């Protein structure tokens, strides 16, 4: 019997739980997570975390305990049968993780994009295409907006061999959610990552979205105008490569804007969500302010990716090895690296001269997780 890997989430949040469950499936190793989301004001599983747990359990017919709202301890055992004594998916040769079609209803405005983040790394062990339709929030606080996921993250992952697309039926803004999106993931052979330098800046792409109920107020247009006015394009010799304003079906009024900065080696994304009482122009300015900070980075070795993308690339770095220069050593980065090391990755964080959390650092994995 494979020993249960004991994990402690006392100093971590939902990302720790999601990544641990994904790695449990990839490694076919049972895990027990205590103190789930222990550093949050409301610890334990919330709707979106429960949806992740239940979805992964359905995908591999896992044995689970603690699958309930508020649970602070969960156990997850993929219980996968392997051949020739193998203990993981790749060891089974052609018998990898089955694909198929699944439907998930988060039941709230809980983030669909964060649930999708747990599924994307499974591309490396899929036997056939996996399609998961999620009903929930697509553009909500504390998670990447849908346009960030499909216009920033997926294009970057395609560069390392991951094949996936989104099919969008409707958007779901806070507080009602109700968005409906399908993620299609194909079996993929991933490559190592090498993102250590920022290449020449090329241009900016803008995606501004409003619910149809806000179309008469020109919210998407005003967000875009606010962003363009604030962006220092001429100062950095950049072009506006794309500008897209969209009114979308949604059961909740809401808006979002995503700016994508293209450069020679990578992609960086910056987003802001509309808020009740906040002028649409200011929403665009907030996204532009974040992009300008990236463009004005005067560090000797500026990071080629934004902070959020850096966090999300770490699991792929652990799976295939490589190096990524990140803009800051955040708490998420520290807890993620510690978790990846628990599963066998040799993770090193090489900081700049001063070990400050807000300084760029190089994250390197010479010995990836053995699958």
What would you note in describing this structure?
The chain has 371 residues and is an alpha/beta fold. Among the domains are: 1-95, UDP-n-acetylglucosamine1-carboxyvinyl-transferase, Chain (Alpha-beta prism); 198-295, RNA 3'-terminal phosphate cyclase, insert domain (Dihydrodipicolinate Reductase, domain 2); 307-367, Ribosomal Protein S8, Chain: A, domain 1. It is 28% helix and 27% strand. It contains 8 helices and 16 strands. It has helices at 14-27, 47-60, 112-119, 146-158, 219-230, 280-295, 307-320, 331-342; strands spanning 5-8, 31-34, 63-65, 74-77, 100-105, 130-136, 164-170, 179-185, 193-195, 201-211, 239-248, 255-263, 267-273, 322-326, 346-351, 361-367. The chain has a 4-stranded mixed beta sheet, with helices on one face. Strands 5-6-8-7 form a 4-stranded mixed beta sheet, with helices on one face. Helix 3 (112-119) links the parallel strand 5 (100-105) and strand 6. Helix 1 packs parallel to helix 3.
């Amino acid at each position: 019997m494979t020993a249960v890997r004991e994990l402690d989430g006392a100093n971590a949040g939902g990302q720790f739980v999601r990544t641990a469950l994904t790695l449990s499936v990839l490694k076919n190793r049972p895990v027990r997570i205590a103190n789930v989301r222990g550093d949050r004001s409301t610890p334990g599983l919330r709707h979106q975390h429960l949806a992740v747990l239940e979805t992964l359990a359905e995908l591999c017919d896992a044995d689970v305990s603690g699958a309930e709202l508020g649970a602070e301890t969960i156990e997850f055992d993929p219980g996968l049968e392997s051949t020739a004594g193998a203990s993981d998916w790749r060891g089974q040769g052609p018998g990898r993780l089955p694909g198929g079609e699944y439907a998930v209803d988060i039941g709230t405005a809980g983030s669909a994009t964060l649930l999708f983040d747990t599924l994307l790394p499974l591309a490396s062990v899929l036997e056939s295409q996996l399609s998961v339709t999620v009903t929930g929030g697509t553009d909500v606080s504390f998670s990447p907006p849908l346009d960030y996921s499909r216009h920033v993250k997926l294009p970057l992952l395609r560069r390392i061999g991951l094949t996936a697309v989104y099919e969008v039926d409707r958007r779901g803004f806070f507080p009602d959610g109700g968005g409906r999106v399908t993620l299609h993931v194909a079996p993929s052979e991933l490559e190592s990552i090498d993102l250590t330098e920022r290449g020449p800046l090329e241009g900016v792409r803008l995606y501004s979205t409003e619910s149809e109920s806000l179309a008469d107020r020109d919210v998407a247009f005003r967000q875009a105008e606010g962003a363009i006015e604030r962006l220092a394009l001429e100062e950095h010799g950049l072009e506006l490569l794309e500008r897209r304003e969209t009114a979308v079906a949604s059961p909740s009024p809401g808006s979002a804007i995503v700016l994508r900065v293209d450069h020679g080696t990578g992609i960086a994304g910056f987003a802001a969500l509309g808020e009740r009482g906040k002028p649409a122009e200011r929403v665009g300015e907030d996204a532009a302010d974040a992009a300008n900070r990236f463009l004005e980075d005067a560090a000797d070795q500026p990071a080629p990716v934004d902070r959020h993308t850096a966090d999300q690339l770490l699991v792929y770095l652990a799976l295939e090895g490589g190096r990524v220069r990140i803009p800051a050593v955040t708490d998420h980065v520290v807890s993620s690296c510690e978790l990846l090391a628990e599963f066998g990755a040799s993770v090193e964080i090489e900081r700049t001269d001063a070990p400050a959390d807000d300084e760029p650092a190089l994250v390197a994995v010479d010995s990836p997780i053995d699958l």
